[in-house]
Amino acid sequence: MSPKGFCAIIAFMKTRILKFNGENPDTTIISEAAAILREGGLVAFPTETVYGLGGDGLRAEASAKIYAAKGRPSDNPLILHIADQEQLTGLVHSVPEGARRLMEAFWPGPLTLVFEKSDAVPYETTGGLDTVAVRMPSHKGARALIRAAGVPVAAPSANLSGQPSPTGGEHVIRDLEGRVEMILDGGDVPLGLESTIVDVTGDTPVILRPGYVTLEQIRTLLGAGEMDPAILDKPSEETRPKAPGMKYRHYAPQAEMVIVEGDRAEVIRQIEELAGGKVREGKRVGILCAQESRGNYHAAPCKTVGTRAEEASIARNLYRCLREFDEEQTEFIYSEAFSEGTLGTAIMNRLVKAAGYRIIRTGGQSGKIQ
After folding, report:
1. Given this model, what pLDDT does residue 43 score?
2. pTM to 2 decimals?
3. Which of 17, 109, 167, 262 lies in the 20 to 30 Å Cα band around 138?
4. Euclidean distance between CA atoms 329 and 348, whole angstroms
5. Residue 132 DSSP SS3
6. Is 222 left (phi over 0), alpha (psi -120 to 50) or beta?
7. Tens-place pLDDT, residues 182-240
8. HSE on the CB side for 30, CA within 13 Å?
9. DSSP 8-state assignment for residue 262
10. What are the tens digits of pLDDT across the range 94-108?
11. What is the spatial distance between Cα 65 and Cα 60, in angstroms, rounded to a whole number?
12. Domains, the chain, ranges and CATH?
């Protein structure tokens, strides 16, 4: 059956939506959700990073359902989620020493490692790659579900492909109700930013997607580490993504979004000028800014994503703000850049992709990255 035909069927699926206490998960709910996963169905559930859309990662047909439910390109690899390190043994060809040390330091937690895959993992799960991405979440409810299912759970973000990742249960319901068997609504997630992805198949670990585990932490632990140059650059259409989020438009609101970066006063001036011009044209405009500069904007409605003094607040609220702009049918968004601090690279990675690589650098180059 074609993916298009499958989508037509899942659009009429009855979705069970259950409240879910991630700290003290109900055993009955866990059992019901685990049974769905074992039978090849899909369950959306919270993790500490964002909500995941889970299916049995060792069943090609379950992975195909994930791609269809999300409308996700089939060459965009999925991440396998495990509950215990023992589950890793049957999924990967080998575990390098560097990977073992990273696991000891950061698992469970927001770190995904890319290994050479074993024959047990179907290519439908890896996007056709000979590598597999694996993570052990720290979220108690997520691990309880994975453990009860007894299978590694392939779980990309539980949203329609390309849209902002879901950090609250209402986001998942809005995107996926009628497309999956069950949604576990655990409220807001604590981190709000996807895991760091590190390729450990070579001599030097390479970050493929930045997150809460930073390059500095990896270098401190292992004495080496690199950042993939594609993280903030636009990939070519011919590029096969090595990890989720590397090739296709991700995290994006419906509005046309532009990032303005540079001297703070000049950024504010340019955003005010750009937003004011669109407002005079009768367009619905929004401004995304830090709490520290909120009082400087008057041309259009603002959303305060967080405070620069606590960069985790920016990571936590970014996707929620982008989704709120969508709800308000905003047509143009002008955003400050948030490149400072230990999470700056991760936040800007998401912002740049959300903006379709449209950046204005005050006093320098502007336009869309080619």
Report:
1. 98
2. 0.91
3. 17
4. 23
5. strand
6. alpha
7. 999 999 999 999 999 999 999 999 999 999 999 999 999 999 999 998 786 665 555 55
8. 18
9. S
10. 999 999 999 999 999
11. 9
12. 3-231 (3.90.870.10), 256-368 (3.40.50.11030)
CA 312 from chain centre, in angstroms, equals 15
Alpha helices (H) in 157-245, listed in sequence order: 169-176, 215-222
> Which parts of the chain sit beneath pLDDT 50?
1-10, 247, 365-370
Residue-wise DSSP of 85-115: GGGGTTTBS---HHHHHHHHHH-SSSEEEEE
Integer Cα distance of 186 and 194 in angstroms? 17
Q: Which positions ≥6 away from 342 have C-beta within 8 Å?
A: 214, 216, 311
- Residue 108: cis peptide before it, omega within 30 degrees of 0: yes
Residue type, 160: L
- Determine the Cα–Cα distance for residues 339 and 345; give it in Å rounded to an integer: 6
Which residues lie across from 209 on neighbouring strands? 197
**Residue 49, token pair as written in the block:** 């990073």
Tell me the residue type at 65: K
